[in-house]
């Protein structure tokens, strides 16, 4: 996975090749220290930020492409204005069909 500083500010492109938004940050799980999700701003005027998994990204040509349709991205759970809880992460993993994290406090 590329360094998070390379990802920040890059456009996020959906499975159809359309730009969905910009990457504002990379969420790192505090328990494992691993980068888990991209924090994506999908609207220029609203401050909504969605979390998209890092597991299947492709970085090329100054953009980050994910294998998800636009609708899936913009309907994803919003990034809370606080640190993610275990329940928040479970909700995200369920939404994106990711395996559960074991041994999480």
UniProtKB/TrEMBL annotation:
Q: Which Gene3D superfamilies match?
A: Photosynthetic Reaction Center, subunit H, domain 2
Q: Where is the PRC-barrel domain?
A: 7-72
**One Pfam family of this chain:** PRC
Which InterPro entries does the record associate with it? Bac_photo_RC_H_C, PRC-brl_dom, PRC_barrel-like_sf
Q: Which SUPFAM superfamilies match?
A: PRC-barrel domain (SSF50346)
**Record's protein name:** PRC-barrel domain-containing protein
Protein source organism: Sporichthya brevicatena
Classification from the root reads: Bacteria, Bacillati, Actinomycetota, Actinomycetes, Sporichthyales
């Amino acid at each position: 996975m590329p360094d998070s500083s390379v990802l920040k500010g890059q456009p996020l492109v959906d499975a159809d090749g359309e730009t969905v938004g910009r990457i504002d940050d990379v969420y790192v799980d505090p328990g494992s220290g691993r980068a888990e999700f991209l924090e994506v701003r999908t609207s220029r005027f609203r401050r909504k930020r969605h979390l998209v998994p890092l597991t299947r990204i492709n970085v090329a040509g100054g953009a980050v492409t994910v294998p998800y349709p636009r609708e899936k991205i913009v309907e994803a759970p919003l990034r809370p204005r606080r640190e993610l809880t275990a329940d928040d992460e479970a909700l995200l993993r369920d939404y994106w069909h990711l395996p559960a994290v074991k041994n999480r406090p």
